[in-house]
Amino acid sequence: MVRDSLRLRLHQLRAALERRPRTLLIGCCGLVLSGGSMVWLGLYQQIDVSRQQPTLLELLDKVTSSTPKLVKDPSISQPPNPPRALNWQSPLAKQCSGLDQTVRKRLQGAQKSLRRRRQSIAIDPSNFGKRYSIDPWNNPINPLPRVVVLHETSYSLQSALNTFQQFHADENDQVSYHTLIGRSGSVIDVVDPLYRAYGAGFSAFLGEWAVTNPEFMGSVNNFALHLSLETPEDGHGGGQRHSGYTAEQYDALALVLDEWMGRFAIKPEAITTHQHVDLGGERGDPRSFDWAELQVRLAALNRLC
Description:
Blueprint: H1 4-19, H2 21-51, H3 56-63, H4 101-117, E1 119-120, E2 128-129, E3 147-152, H5 157-164, E4 179-181, E5 187-189, E6 196-197, E7 224-229, H6 247-264, E8 271-273, H7 274-277, H8 291-300
Parallel strand pairs: 1-5, 3-7, 3-8, 4-7
Antiparallel strand pairs: 2-6, 4-5
């Protein structure tokens, strides 16, 4: 049923149209054009905003624009065969219930302040590089980050930073991680995830590596993210084990992983260790890592369901 006030307005509009049809018609056209302009402007703004938010592939395309060192004659030089795939049984189990609500609330609170607490520290450009979309034989390779490799610093966090900030002309000495986590839970980013950190030299994950220099064997660096935990003092002298990592480190680790897993669609089973991907059998880090501590935190963040 039409209300009386609406009937009155319709009657007034009809009377006005009868008295000044041309004027009212122009006014209506103006309203239509104005409304159309607003709609067009809104669509234009949406399109413009979308252009300011490029996809991950577009971002990677910008940082992989250069090419690796190409072989002079691909007909007489072939890329090395990838290694035999080593099975990786992830210690992280699927978990959709039994979540620790105390841990959940603590991490949600820390998550809000993570961006403010994180530090970015510049390192020497010799210790990181671009992700490549072709290998030295001009074959396409996938530069998308899809594996996380966990490490430890072996010595103090500051010692690792000092190494990363030094120029290394010899490629065998070039080293870096994307992110480091201190004993207090501090988070320090040193290499943008869109770039290639030199965290694992001769390495592969599930039989996959990427050869980016014809003078070296392949590694996971071109498609990996590297994260390192600061080693406790009792682990500085070597040995197979040490006292382990702090609760603050595990909290920060879970939050960084949560961000990377969301941003790059990384699955829990693609979180591995330097010890596992190392093909030289020389790496054992991160020593004394407690997967149960990471399990409860990633489950609380709904990353294991």
